[in-house]
Design brief:
Largest sheet: 7 strands, parallel
Structural class: alpha/beta
Number of helices: 13
Radius of gyration: 22 Å
Mean pLDDT: 83
CATH superfamily of one domain: NAD(P)-binding Rossmann-like Domain
Low-confidence stretches: 1-68
CATH architecture of one domain: 3-Layer(aba) Sandwich
Strand order of the largest sheet: 6-5-4-7-8-9-12
Order of helices and strands: EEEEHEHEHEHEHEHHEEHEEHEHHHH
Oligomer: single chain
CATH class of one domain: Alpha Beta
Helix content: 25-40%
Number of strands: 14
Strand content: 15-25%
Length: about 350
C-alpha cells in the first residue's frame, strides 16, 4: 500500500488468528482505509501497519521509513483571500514554490501567486469539474471556509468529494472555536459543524483547525468612531482569546509543511482571553485618548450597524458573534496556536497596535 508523499511503502503485518476478521482501527490514512492494514504516525516518528480484531486483541509491526523531504503538492483553496494568502506566504518560506498550488476563481487576482512561482488552478467551490482538475497531483488540501452562508456546506462537500475521488491523502479545514453547538446564537456557524461531519465521513485523513474570532475584526465590531464614542456593544462581560489572522496563516503553513500528518483537531486561539473592557483599556493606552466600554441592547446595536450601511447578512453575523461572546461561547484558551508558531502569539495590546498602526 503506497504512502503518498513518502519514499517507502507500509510494512508487512501479522495476520489475525484463524476465524478472526481484521478491521481498520486507526484514524489516519494516506489513500483510504486498506481492508487489512492502515498506516498511521507513531509517536516515535515511524509508520506502522495496525490490525485490530474483535475482542480487543491488537497486532502491530513497526518499521522505520524515510519521509520524502517535501510533499508532492499542497493545494490551498481560497488562495486570493486573506487567510489563504497569508498561509501561502508562510508556506513559501518553508517549501519550494513548485510544491504549492492555489485554487482561485479570478485569474487576475491570482497574478501575484504566479509571480512567486505558485501553481494557480482556476476553479470554484460550485464547479465540480474545475475542482476535479485542481486536485490532480495533490497530496494535501487546505479547505478555506467559503463565505456563501447558504451554499457553504454543499460547496465544501464538492471540495471533499473532488479530493477523495482524486486520491488526495489529507484534507484540512478552517473551522471555528465554539463551545456548544446546541446553544450558539449565531446559526450561520452551523455550516462549520456540518462541514466537519462531511470531512469525518469522507474516509480521508484530516485536520480541523478551529479558529477563534480574528483580532482583525475588532475595528469592524467597535466602529470607526471608537476613539470619540468609545465601545458600545451587547457583549456583556464575555471574553475572547483573540488572535491575528496572519498568525493563524503561519500556524496553518507550519502544520501543512511539517513531515507526516497533523493531529485531527486544533484549537487556534490567543494565549489569554479578553473582554471588550480590556479592548477599550488597550486602545486608550495605545492612543492616549479616553476609550470606555458600555454594554448595549442587541436591537439598538443592530440598528446602528444598519445605519452604517452594512447589509442585513453582515448585521446578523456580527450580532450573532457578539451574542455568543456574551454567552461565553468563545471563551476557551488553547496552547495549539503557540505550539504551531513556536512562540507566543501576539497579545491584545500588540495586535491592536499593529491593526490600528498606533
Amino acid at each position: 500500500m503506497p504512502l503518498v508523499g513518502f519514499s517507502k511503502t507500509a510494512p508487512a503485518f501479522r495476520p489475525p488468528p484463524t476465524g478472526k476478521r481484521a478491521e481498520c482501527s486507526c484514524h489516519l490514512s494516506a489513500t483510504g482505509c486498506h481492508p487489512l492494514a492502515i498506516p498511521w504516525r507513531a509517536p516515535e516518528g515511524e509508520f506502522c501497519s495496525v490490525l485490530s480484531v474483535p475482542g480487543g486483541q491488537r497486532w502491530a509491526r513497526q518499521a522505520a521509513v524515510t519521509p520524502a523531504k517535501f510533499p508532492s503538492m499542497i493545494l490551498v483553496t481560497g488562495a486570493t483571500g486573506q487567510l489563504g494568502s497569508a498561509t501561502i506566504d508562510f508556506l513559501l518560506k518553508k517549501l519550494p514554490a513548485a510544491h504549492i498550488a492555489g485554487l482561485a476563481r479570478d485569474e487576475q487576482k491570482a497574478t501575484w501567486l504566479r509571480a512567486k512561482g505558485v501553481t494557480v488552478r482556476l476553479g470554484s467551490y460550485d464547479d465540480a469539474p474545475s475542482l476535479a482538475a485542481a486536485m490532480q497531483g495533490v497530496d494535501k488540501v487546505l479547505l478555506i471556509a467559503g463565505t456563501d452562508e447558504e451554499r457553504r456546506v454543499q460547496q465544501h462537500q464538492n471540495v471533499v468529494d473532488a479530493a477523495r475521488q482524486a486520491g488526495v491523502g489529507f484534507i484540512a479545514y478552517t473551522s471555528r472555536t465554539l463551545k456548544d453547538r446546541a446553544t450558539m446564537a449565531n446559526k450561520l456557524m452551523e455550516g462549520h459543524f456540518q462541514t466537519e461531519e462531511v470531512i469525518k465521513a469522507s474516509g480521508l485523513a484530516y485536520s480541523l483547525f478551529r479558529n477563534v474570532l480574528y483580532m482583525d475584526v475588532l475595528p469592524q465590531f467597535v466602529g470607526p468612531q471608537v476613539f470619540d464614542a468609545g465601545i458600545i456593544l451587547p457583549a456583556g462581560q464575555g471574553r475572547v482569546p483573540f488572535a491575528l489572522r496572519r498568525e493563524m496563516g503561519e500556524a496553518l503553513a507550519n502544520a501543512l509543511a511539517a513531515e507526516g500528518l497533523p493531529k485531527p483537531v486544533y484549537q487556534l486561539t490567543g494565549r489569554a482571553s479578553y473582554s471588550f473592557a480590556d479592548v477599550a483599556a488597550a486602545l486608550a493606552e495605545l492612543s492616549g485618548k479616553p476609550v470606555a466600554y458600555a454594554p448595549a441592547e442587541v436591537s439598538a446595536f443592530a440598528q446602528g450597524l444598519k445605519g452604517r450601511g452594512l447589509p442585513d447578512v453582515v448585521v446578523e453575523r456580527i450580532t450573532g458573534f457578539i451574542t455568543d461572546i456574551k454567552n461565553g461561547q468563545e471563551d476557551e484558551v488553547s496552547p495549539d496556536l503557540e505550539r504551531l508558531l513556536g512562540r507566543q502569539p501576539a497579545s491584545l495590546h500588540a495586535g491592536l497596535k499593529e491593526l490600528y498602526q498606533l
